[in-house]
Write a structure and sequence with these properties.
Layout lengths: L13 E4 L4 E3 L8 E6 L6 H11 L2 H6 L2 E6 L4 H10 L7 E3 L3 H6 L4 E3 L9 E3 L2 E5 L5 E6 L9 H14 L8
Parallel strand pairs: 3-4, 4-5
Antiparallel strand pairs: 1-2, 1-5, 3-8, 6-7, 8-9
């Protein structure tokens, strides 16, 4: 597992996008940040709740110059079910993140429990703010589905960061 360092380049990232197309981090140039939200997958009710919160804030993030995308290791079939049943139409949904890519981003990886709807292997949650130059600004990585950043708080933090030219921290 890698540890990403603020102010340093993040790994490359390219994923399939629901319902079709491709999304690549280096192909986008938001004014201030790209908000990458890695979620556990279709099986996770806490991810559903989290992405529904984000869904209601996408336009406010966009107004601050922040591009939003949610990503998972789910395959296309599971991602399609997620998009169809979670009421997250405002959140672009990337799927098919490889386990190797998840590890390159510093995400924890779990083996699915046989008595659950979990896939055989999947990435745990992580939230990243990436500058337009491809450098890491902020990250929050979890080993479990709970205790994640709340997107309304993150929205306020991004507004403060932009208005006060607040630097990335944790680089030393």
């Amino acid at each position: 597992m890698s540890q990403l360092i603020p102010r340093q380049p993040v790994p490359t990232l390219s994923v399939a996008l629901m319902p079709e197309g491709q999304w690549a981090l280096n192909a986008n140039a938001p004014k201030n940040f790209t908000l990458l939200v890695f979620y556990r997958g279709l099986h996770c009710p806490l991810c559903r709740k989290s992405l529904q919160e984000l869904n209601g804030l996408v336009e406010r993030f966009a107004a601050l110059g922040v591009e939003v995308i949610a990503l998972s290791t789910d395959d296309q079939e599971r991602a399609a079910k997620t998009q169809a049943s979670w009421t997250i139409a405002n959140v672009p949904l990337g799927y098919g993140v490889s386990i190797e890519t998840a590890r390159n981003w510093g995400l924890f990886v779990s083996a699915g429990r046989p008595d659950s709807q979990e896939p055989e292997i999947f990435a745990e949650p992580g939230v990243f703010l990436v500058r337009p130059d491809g450098s890491l600004y902020m990250s929050s990585v979890n080993t479990m589905p709970f205790a994640r950043p709340h997107f309304d708080e993150l929205l306020g933090a991004v507004e403060y960061v932009i208005n006060n030219n607040y630097p990335a921290r944790g680089e030393a």
